[in-house]
User: What shape does this take?
Amino acid sequence: MTGAASRHGRERSEAPTYQRAVYVICGLGNPGPRYTRNRHNAGFQCVDHLAAAWGITFDRMRFKAHVGTGRALGLQIVLAKPMTFMNDSGLAVSAIVRWYKIPLSRLLVIYDDLDLPLGRVRLRPNGSAGGHKGMASIIAQLGSDQFPRLRIGIGRPIQGEPYDYVLSDFAPDQWLTMQETYARARAAIECFLQRGIETAMSQFN
Assistant: This one.
C-alpha cells in the first residue's frame, strides 16, 4: 500500500462515528436544571431514557445541542437535545439534519402535548405543529412538516394557564407514571426503527 493509500485508509477508519449516522432522534425541552422535571421537558426526559437504555452518552455539544452517538438495534443512532430553548429548537434540529444529510423520514422529534392525556404516546409520520412552538420552529427551519414525530401526553391543567402548567414540574405520582410512559415510548421507537412508522403506529397509538 502506498503512503497516500495508507493515509486514506487511516482517515476512513478514524472517521467519527457520527458521520455514519442513520437515524437522528431529537427530544425537545429547555436547558438548565430549573427545567429538568418540567412537563415541557418531556422530550428531553424521553431521550435521556433512550440514552440510558441504549448505552449512549451525551458527550459533545454541537449544532447548539447536546449530542450523543451510538448503536442500537443494529443501527447508528444520533440522540440530540437542542440547547436553544424550546421556541428556537429548529435552529439546532435543522443544523443536525443538514450535517448528517439524512432524509426527513429518518428524523424523529419527541415532544410534549397538552392535548393528549397524561402518559399517552402518539406517533405520526408528519403534520402541523398543533400550536407547539418548538415544533413550529422546526417546521419553519426545515421548510417541511414531513418528518416523524412522537407526542407525549402531559394533559391539560384543570385550572390556571397552560403556560404556567407546562413550565411546572410533574407531581411525584405523575413522575412515576412518566417513567412508565418513557419505557412505552422506547418500545414504540424501537418498533419504528425496526419495522417502520405504520407498524409502530398500529401497535402503540
Observations:
- DSSP finds seven helices and seven strands in the chain.
- The beta strands are 23-27, 60-62, 65-72, 75-82, 107-113, 121-124, 149-153.
- The chain has one domain: 16-204.
- Helices lie at 3-13, 42-54, 89-100, 133-142, 162-166, 172-195, 197-204.
